[in-house]
Design a protein that fits this description.
The structure holds two protein chains of two kinds.
Chain A (H helix, E strand, L loop, with lengths): L8 E2 L3 H6 L3 E5 L2 E6 L3 H10 L1 E5 L4 E6 L3 H9 L14 E7 L5 E8 L10 E6 L4 H11 L5 E5 L2 E7 L3 H6 L4 H4 L5 E6 L2 E6 L8 E7 L3 H9 L4 E3 L2 H10 L26 H6 L5 H10 L3 E8 L10 E3 L5 E11 L4 E9 L8 E6 L2 E8 L13
Parallel strand pairs in A: 1-3, 4-14
Antiparallel strand pairs in A: 2-3, 4-10, 5-8, 5-9, 6-7, 7-8, 10-13, 11-12, 12-13, 15-18, 15-20, 16-17, 16-19, 17-18, 19-20
Chain B lengths: L1 E4 L4 E6 L2 E6 L1 H7 L2 E5 L6 E2 L4 E7 L3 E5 L4 E6 L9 H4 L8 E5 L11 H8 L1
Antiparallel strand pairs in B: 1-2, 2-3, 3-9, 4-6, 5-8, 6-7, 8-9
Classes of the chains: A alpha+beta, B alpha+beta.
């Protein structure tokens, strides 16, 4: 069960994880903690107070063009997101698509706050396992004069939970000034950072980009607050599942389009009408004609976890769908999952049966998120 | 009472010809929070090495193998509602099944406490 981490990349916080008792596993080529005290304890602490996650494995990218309009036009050609409407200091979730409309990755696109970066610069955060793929794809597709780089000089920490604003507010007034999906530069203690109010848990929280050499000091500063405990990848996964948030490579991949994946919020209204992005024909056709299958939330009776790969069957035993993520969820105290079903069977409350080790587990289609989001939106 | 361990981290604790089977404390620590335990039917017969149960954490499902051959005479019904007993008391209240051993000689191939401690740590 022990694992040799010799060939794995280490984040700037590796020594902190080991010192805090983190059980290190491979994820996206990195050695990262799957848990410290235990997944359920970390999950519950995140819902009740605040947890600190090291998400430095994710790809932090910088896109640079001659001016804002040129950079945004170049990025809108690659994604269906409404990026032109981003005000300074705003961020948006969207997807990179291929010509068939399949999702190459999902990502956050951030327009720097006023004065944070030169005109024409956009920040992005992409999945760890896809960052080199995305870099190559974008370098190929971006027009002359617009370039993209993958930063390896910065770390990313996520402080998540209802106490996150109080904790961060002890060090910077930026915590109070930000609403959900906004970003500002900040000085935390004496550490320069870029802070956004965002995350992957469904809770209020912040993602903090900081120079690698400052990451351990920032980790120590935030951990010094007794409201904060470290949390690992296990809790990150159970929290995002309860929040109904997709995980790339599981709930979506390059064969699944964003309409089937129920990610319409990643596609701007203007973009749906106008197109003008890679994969636009496929996406617009599915918007007009409907999809064959759709991503749904599922809830099962009893405690049996229904995990990725489980088949979903109809009353005759025919396989009609599949589970793409699932576990016994600590906050809802139920077996929940995300999966795909034929569009005509994807309506709320439709009974559905999953097969686990040859045995049926009864369940139904339910609304997501499974746990209400507690984002702090602008008043 | 004699307790013996397998290389897959199951234990069997012998009381007369009945063996109580569970997973070691080391195994429960490695698995993390147990959220579900699938147990066999009372009366079912297994050969040594057969899958007899599945212990599931938030993260993964782990098969549990019969450390000896025999017939299931009892299963731990409390685990249906309290699977966390496996974490809290793996060697005690978190037991999985009780076996009527068909061949006590199979115990000879298993590790005693001292050998298992060396093996697992």
């Amino acid at each position: 069960m022990a694992q040799d981490n010799a060939d794995l990349l280490k984040t700037a916080l590796y020594d902190r994880h080991v010192a805090a008792g983190g059980r290190m596993v491979e994820f996206g080529g990195y050695a990262l903690p799957v848990q410290y005290a235990g997944i359920v304890a970390e999950h519950n602490h995140t819902r009740q107070a605040a947890s600190l996650f090291d998400v430095s494995h994710m790809g932090q990218m910088v896109v640079t063009g001659p001016d804002h309009e040129t950079t945004i036009a170049a990025l809108e050609a690659l994604t269906p997101g409404d990026l032109a409407s981003l005000a300074p200091g705003q961020m948006r979730y969207t997807v990179l698509l291929n010509a068939k409309g399949g999702i190459e990755d999902d990502l956050m696109v951030t327009r720097p706050a006023a004065g944070e970066a030169p005109d024409g610069v956009i920040f992005m955060v992409v999945n760890a396992a896809r960052k080199h793929h995305d870099l190559a794809l974008m370098q190929k597709a971006l027009p002359e004069g617009v370039s993209v780089t993958l930063r390896d000089d910065v770390s990313l920490l996520a402080l998540q939970g209802p106490a996150a604003a109080e904790v961060l507010g002890g060090h910077t007034d930026v915590a109070d000034r930000l609403a959900f999906m906004e970003t500002l530069p900040a000085t935390i203690g004496s550490i320069p950072a870029s802070v956004s109010r965002s995350g992957y848990t469904g809770e209020d929280g912040f993602e903090i980009s900081v120079a690698n050499e400052d990451a351990p000091a920032l980790f120590d500063l935030l951990m010094a607050n007794p409201l904060v405990k470290p949390a690992g990848l296990g809790a990150r996964d159970s929290l995002r599942l309860e929040a109904g948030l997709c995980l790339y490579g599981h709930d979506m991949d390059d064969t699944i389009d964003p309409v089937s994946a129920n990610l319409l919020f990643a596609i701007g209204k203007r973009r749906r009408a106008q197109g003008g992005f890679i994969g636009d024909e496929a996406v617009m056709a599915r918007l007009a004609q409907g999809v064959a299958e759709r991503r749904v939330g599922l809830r099962f009776e009893g405690r049996q976890p229904v995990r990725e790969g489980a088949e979903l069957i109809d009353e005759n035993g025919a396989v009609i769908g599949r589970v793409t993520s699932g576990t016994f969820a600590p906050t809802v105290e139920a077996s929940i999952a995300l999966g795909y079903l034929p569009a005509d069977l994807a309506a709320m409350d439709t009974p559905i049966t999953a097969m686990v080790r040859g045995r049926p587990v009864a369940g139904a289609v339910v609304a997501t998120p499974f746990v209400p989001h507690r984002y702090v939106r602008k008043a | 009472m004699t307790t013996r361990y397998t290389q897959d981290h199951e234990y069997v604790r012998l009381d007369g010809t009945t063996g109580t089977v569970g997973i070691s404390n080391y195994a429960q620590e490695q698995l993390g929070d147990i959220v579900f335990v699938e147990l066999p039917a009372v009366g079912a017969e297994f050969k040594k090495g057969d899958e007899i149960a599945v212990v599931e954490s938030v993260k993964a499902a782990s098969e549990i193998y019969a450390p000896v051959s025999g017939k299931v005479v009892a299963v731990n019904e409390r685990l249906a509602d309290e699977p966390g007993l496996v974490n809290a008391d793996a060697a005690g209240d978190g037991w999985l099944v009780k076996f009527e051993l068909s061949d006590a000689g199979e115990l000879d191939g298993l590790m005693d406490e001292a050998a298992y401690t060396d093996f697992a740590v």
